[in-house]
């Protein structure tokens, strides 16, 4: 059954539920929830005494399936882990993050904001910063600087660290470009002086 759920094969899963009696493992519910198939989740819940863990909500949250997260929250008792909000934040699923914040008590770790920063999810970073106390790793912005500076990442850095020099991000970008492409043709500085 878990293979049918994993491959999102409704007709096979329905046949197995109605005609076989071996039951299934927890991975069937995990895959149904993680794949965003509410009908499969309901079928497994109704017809089988499927033992679950926190993984179904965790997996649905990571993939942004807020309707699955809500249904499991209302109909199952297993709950979720901190990975649910951490993963939802990392992937930019703001609606899921808001729901988990409002309806669940598990919370998140610093990893939620760290990953949202690194992946450039400004709205998620702003929500977590204004509504959660976990904060972010003090090195998260420095790690973000090692990635390609996108407009979204620039906005996050300016939001979280308004006290940094105004040209800080530009300096990081110039430094990175220098290390990749070398000095500009009109750059009169020697190699050992660096990009500034």
Description:
Mean pLDDT is 79; it is low at 186-196. It contains 13 helices and no strands. It has helices spanning 2-6, 10-19, 26-34, 38-47, 55-62, 66-75, 82-90, 94-103, 110-118, 122-131, 140-145, 151-160, 168-181. It has 196 residues and is mainly alpha-helical. 61% of the residues lie in helices and 0% in strands. The radius of gyration is 23 Å and the shape is elongated. It starts with a helix and ends in a 15-residue tail after the last helix. The chain has a domain at 82-184: Serine Threonine Protein Phosphatase 5, Tetratricopeptide repeat, CATH 1.25.40.
Helix-strand layout with pairing:
Layout: H1 2-6, H2 10-19, H3 26-34, H4 38-47, H5 55-62, H6 66-75, H7 82-90, H8 94-103, H9 110-118, H10 122-131, H11 140-145, H12 151-160, H13 168-181
